[in-house]
Structure formats: C-alpha cells, structure tokens
Design brief:
about 230 residues, disordered C terminus, two-stranded antiparallel sheet, 10 helices, mainly alpha
C-alpha cells in the first residue's frame, strides 16, 4: 500500500468511526483530521468535500454487500432456469449479506450498521440523492423477483411489504442489545447469524405471503380479497 493509499484508508476508517459515534452533522472536519492525523488538504485531495467523504465511507461497505446480494440472486435464478425463485430463498438472499456484515468484525460491521442507520435519518436530501444509485440495481432486481413469486399482490401492496422487510432487517442488523432487552428470559450467548437468518426468513416470508387486505375509504377491512 502506498503512502497515499494509507492516508486515504486512515481517513475512511476514522470518518466511519466518528460518523457512527457522533453523527454526520456533529463530526467536524477539524475533529476528523485531528484524529486521523492528516491535514485538511489531504481530505480535500482524496474526497473533495464532506458529503463526498460520507458517500465514500458508506459505499466502501454497501457496494460489496449489495454485490453479494445480486450474486446470490443470480445464482438462484440460474438454478431455477426462468421460473420464479422460491420466496424463502429470495428473502434469505436479500437479508443474509446484511446480517453477515453486521457481525463481521474484520470489516467493523457493527460500527458500519450504526453509521448506516444514521444515514437513513440524518443525511440531507442531496446526500440521499448521491446514495440512491448504490441501492438502485439491487432494489430493481429483487423487486422484479419478488413480484414474480408474489403475482397476487398489487404493486402498491408489494411496495409496502418490501418497505416493512427492509425496516425489520435494519432493526435486526442493529445488533443483539435491543433483542436482549425485549427477550423476557434474556439472551446471554452471542447470536448465531445462521439461526437469526433462518428465523427472520420464516417471519418475513409469512408476512410477504399474507393475503392482501381490501382497501376502504377509511382503512382496511379485516377480510382479505380472494
């Protein structure tokens, strides 16, 4: 690794930690340069702006994660040769890489998940516009795959269910602390990601398969359409 590459890596590592701990708005470039032991010129040279640095920090983990999602989806589609991918397999292919990253200490997975959560709620619209392309391909491909295996759902209902899927996944990616608070008996042992993936797949698949409720002017009826 060259000196330039080492400096860039140090800036990214420091920025990821500070953004995750303090938030995007509360992390000043002065604080970042001090803790990374670089000057402002180095940050400007490698990234150009704070927004571009945030984008690079998120892309470093998110792009490979989404690439792994697409790799698993394409493998499933190749295996099923033009037929819809079974729903359980589809859900597992989407949630698996994210849950694995959240537990990957070699890639500071839990730290990145905290940062990603801040990205959903803290980042300004212009940053969201820059991050959206990182999701576009994986969302487009998985949305078509979900629509193919759930043809009975309207486009609007499918949108809401995928929205809930992503929200539930984000909660589970946040780690075991809240799960231990919720669990009445406590959970002292580390969570097994394979077990979490299996349990979450069963839960999400049931919700995705539920019959679509009938819309009324004031909400939904309890009866579902055939």
């Amino acid at each position: 690794m060259t000196a330039n590459q080492g400096t860039k890596q140090r800036i990214l590592d420091t920025a990821e930690r500070l953004f995750a701990d303090q938030g995007f708005g509360n992390t000043s470039l002065r604080c970042l340069t001090s803790q990374a032991a670089v000057n402002l010129a180095a940050v400007n040279y490698h990234f150009g702006s704070k927004d571009a640095l945030i984008e690079a920090v998120i892309a470093r983990r998110l792009v490979p994660m989404n690439g792994e999602r697409l790799r698993r989806l394409r493998a499933l589609q190749g295996r099923h040769r033009g037929h819809p991918v079974p729903l359980e397999s589809l859900v597992a292919a989407f949630i698996g890489p994210a849950l694995e990253l959240s537990q990957d200490t070699s890639r500071a997975g839990s730290q990145f998940i905290r940062l990603l959560g801040r990205g959903f709620v803290e980042s300004p619209p212009q940053l969201q516009d820059r991050l959206r392309p990182m999701y576009r391909e994986v969302i487009d491909h998985f949305k078509r795959a979900f629509a193919a295996v759930l043809p009975e759902l309207s486009a609007e209902e499918l949108y809401w269910r995928l929205h809930f899927l992503v929200g539930t996944l984000a909660y589970c990616m946040s780690g075991a602390d809240m799960m231990r608070v919720v669990a009445s008996s406590g959970m002292s042992a580390p969570l097994d990601i394979e077990v979490v993936t299996q349990r979450l797949t069963v839960f999400l698949t049931a919700g995705l398969r539920a019959r679509e409720p009938v819309a009324e002017a004031n909400g939904f009826k309890r009866t579902a359409r055939a």
